[in-house]
Amino acid sequence: MASRRNIALYLVPAVALVTVFLVLPLVVVAILSTTRWVGVGTPEPVGFDNFSHLLTDPAFRRALANTVLWVVVGTVVHTPLCVLVALVVARRPRGWRFFRTAFFVPNVISATALALLWYFVFHVSLGPLNTLLRAAGLDDWARAWLSDPSTALGATMTPWVVYVGFGMVLFLTQISTIPREYYEAAQLDGASGLRQDLHITIPLIRRAIALQVLFVVGYALRSFEYPFIMTSGGPADSTMTLSLYIYRQMMTANQYGLSMAAGVVTLVVGIVLTALIFLGLRRAER
Amino acid sequence: MKRTTLAIAASAAVTLLLAACGSAVPDEDGGDDGTTAPGEEVRIEVMSNFTSDIARGEVLDELIAEFNAANEGTYEVVSTTEADWPTLQQRIRAMITAGTTPDLFLYNFNPTDLSREQSGALMDWSQYLAEDPEWAARFADVNIDALTMDGQVVGIPGDQSPALVYYHEDLLEQAGFSEFPQTWDEVVALGEALAPEGIGAMAMMTADDAWHTMNVFSYLATSAGGEDAYAPGTSLNNDAVVTAADYTERLLEVSTPDAVGANYSVSSANFLGKRAAAIIDGPWLISSIQSEVEDPCSVKVSPAPVLADSAIPAGYTITDSLNVWGAAKQDDPAREAAVVAWMKFFTSNESAVRMAVDGEYALAVQTELTDEDAERASCQMAQVLEITNAAPTAVVQMGRGITASAQEALPSLLEGLALGQRTPEDFAAALDEANAN
């Protein structure tokens, strides 16, 4: 009995913090999502009007679709790239320490600074990308990457996709826990390096892959810096994300209720995607 | 009950917002925490975007230091700044709702959103203006009228900067123009002449509030439809807006290649770096011209062009929104006296001249420059004052008078127009629809 009381006491600080900084804000967001409020005065209850408005707002639909695309690209492009780099670095080729550090460095640089850097990389007249294309005689390929709706979204995703440092470190950590005997036995059976990766390493790091995908979902739902700084969500909302939509409704349109409703939708999308990942992981475990 | 719940939720949201903003709540010296004891110094907080690293911020700091020295032991003014204008505005909204309205704060007046003025948290200046007709006469009647609600004057006009054409004289000469074009068709021709050199006619932008582009748009709309082309309550789905959209599309085509998606800093850098021949901006650009252009006085100032069959005579000005000094309603007469004393000092002719000449920032008060002041003013500021004084009329820029929802939709609509996804007619209809929300 005393032990249960002690456990409860240990939990009190954490429960209090979660209640104050997570549960209560969520309740406030949920309540305000059913109001019309310009940030001054008393909110006016409007039921589910904000949610109806979201359904008919092309900018929100675009933000939702783009956010889902961020998740897809993060899962099917970024994560495999992280795995690939981790597999290569784990073999400790010449200079592996340098490459491990070089790949990780962008993760300790402010995303705002990186977004500015990539803004200039893709800039139509000042950017090195177009300069290189022209120098290579590929003038037709040079374009206004950030102002062209067909390339702007890809351009805003590029930095995130190519910065594989965090995922790489996550996978390297997991790979280092795999007993060497598994590989020695496979080598005795004549398994190639590729076979060893496919049949030993990747299955044994599946939990880390699931964790990485969870991080990807979290990041995609919060993706803000790159579209905000590189394109401001344009051109014509083509790079709008849910986070940016929430920001604009609150900071520009003063539509706090609508902004909160978009926040609720983001939360629901996050819960659904997280549940799907856990479901997938559970099936893979069977 | 439901109303109480919502009010609590709103207060909780504001508290969270303020927590996120850091120490946005003034300390006990700066809030409305009772009356001041006799002989006690009154400390008031002035909140603005006049940061110390820009010319007007430097002048504000100097003025505050002088005011504090002259009123030592009686009043102390403290400046609190937030460089980012939208963040400043949201912070002020949050503080009004939380009941911690700053003693004095600069905000953008928008006749389509009177939530701050109607919050009941703002001080009424009518008595002080009535008691001091000389001070009241320093402000334009039209501005005081706009700020008068139910007999109360809810703020003091702060500034209303004219948006004028700044242009590189040498680039225009290079294109065969001895002065800035008189009509918008000639501006399009200027753009076509400069295009082979990789130079845009006008520096334009579509991100954020699309300020530079909306200045062009507002001149076009008013030239096509007169002063009331987009007045509050007017349908924006009209011929003037369609004409303005048509010309804006053409001008975006002959602007810099990064105009679509550009923000204020990109657009103004394009002008300062001579990648665009001209820009329509406020006088705050002058300090950048003075510091960044090799030969600053080669940048000239001009009234904006008009359409061939303009509804308004040339020479008029489009202005930024009227920025207003609001003040917290005070329970303490001593604090209220301090707020009034500071505002009278800040809006005096001497302060206004220093703001205009040294701060490159014209206050919305009568500003009489001596010959010596005029000589001290930068080459552009002297032209700005001359053009502004000669202007037959002034109209507030369109982006500043439409609803917040329409402001939010503007970047996307302008980009759709520039990319050919929307016709000028679609643009006008969509903007009108957004403005109705």
UniProtKB/TrEMBL annotation, chain A:
Keywords: Cell membrane, Membrane, Transmembrane, Transmembrane helix, Transport. This is Sugar ABC transporter permease. It comes from the Bacteria. It is found in: Cell membrane. It holds the Pfam family BPD_transp_1. Residues 64-277 form the ABC transmembrane type-1 domain. It is a multi-pass membrane protein. The keyword Transmembrane applies. Its main location: membrane. GO terms for biological process: transmembrane transport. InterPro entries: ABC_transporter_permease (IPR051393), MetI-like (IPR000515), MetI-like_sf (IPR035906). The chain crosses the membrane at residues 7-32, 68-90, 102-122, 152-172, 204-221, 256-281. The keyword Cell membrane applies. One of its GO terms (cellular component) is plasma membrane. Belongs to the binding-protein-dependent transport system permease family.
Automatic annotation (TrEMBL), chain B:
SUPFAM superfamilies: Periplasmic binding protein-like II. It comes from the Bacteria. It holds the Pfam family SBP_bac_8. Residues 1-19 form the signal peptide. Keywords: Signal. This is Sugar ABC transporter substrate-binding protein.
